[in-house]
Amino acid sequence: MIEDLLIIILNYNSAKESVALYTDLLTQGAGKSKILVVDNNSTKDDQAHLLKHIATSQLRFLDVNKGYASGNRVGIEFAIQNSIPYILLLNPDIRISTESIKALLYTIKSTKDVAVIGPRICYRNNTETIYSDGGLIYLNQGCYTTHRHFKKHIKEVPASKMLLDADYVNGSVFMTRTEVFKEIGFMRDDFFLYFEETEWCMRANKKGYKLGILTEALAYHESSTKGYLYYYYMTRNRLLLSRLYSDYYKVTRKVVWDIIKKELQKSIKQRRIPSCVLRARIKGFIAGNLKKLN
């Protein structure tokens, strides 16, 4: 049994993955009452699959999909109302052992100045290749983000003590204290998808908190094909983030526009219709400059 922790799985049309993760955690002894699955207004068939395999007491169904931050907020508020001091946000595609969860929990409990902690994330289909040892953001390069040790073999970067120089912890496996939300607020609902955890981690860091990556704890994620929504929200929210940190807005706008301009010129030269990716980036660029921030 894992004490003092609520595990929150946010589902959106990924019921098979969510059920597999939920079942895997139960099999490892996580305890049913320690897991809450929040459904972000999935299809009826997807919701039916959840209801078939997960106890209704551990399910929350939302009428509207308002994105990552809003969906997870339902679980976070449940933890706060029930005086649960720690929460772990998990994406449905993640696989993680309870031993790794316990290691993360022990570390954050014993390191009071750490607001959020995450594990080393590798690939489910290539378990010895690193996906992320923490996120990095280069504000002066147009809010460019990347993952530390991305695609490196685990033997190249042996697990060590906790890393404390990440700029953000990946939102797919995100353990934090509920008290931090009381101090700095929740993640931004208006981002909808991508960069929410980045902005929240930057806010926490500004308040003097540290961000930890425990490379001895492992999680595994399933890589997926990136479509229109990915490029739209990544472009839009990169600009929204830069507007919150206004010193970097002009350079971010220029960097993003240069990427779009290069792709557009290539399309014109080759006399082809702009690709799905290019159309997404153009619309994301417009929205990122014009959207009203709360």
UniProtKB/TrEMBL annotation:
Transmembrane residue ranges: none
SUPFAM superfamilies linked: Nucleotide-diphospho-sugar transferases (SSF53448)
GO MF, one example: glycosyltransferase activity
InterPro entries according to UniProt: Glyco_trans_2-like, Nucleotide-diphossugar_trans
Gene3D superfamilies: Spore Coat Polysaccharide Biosynthesis Protein SpsA, Chain A
Keywords for this protein: Glycosyltransferase, Transferase
Domain (Glycosyltransferase 2-like) ranges: 7-139
One protein family per Pfam: Glycos_transf_2
Family, as annotated: Belongs to the glycosyltransferase 2 family.
Record protein name field: Glycosyltransferase family 2 protein
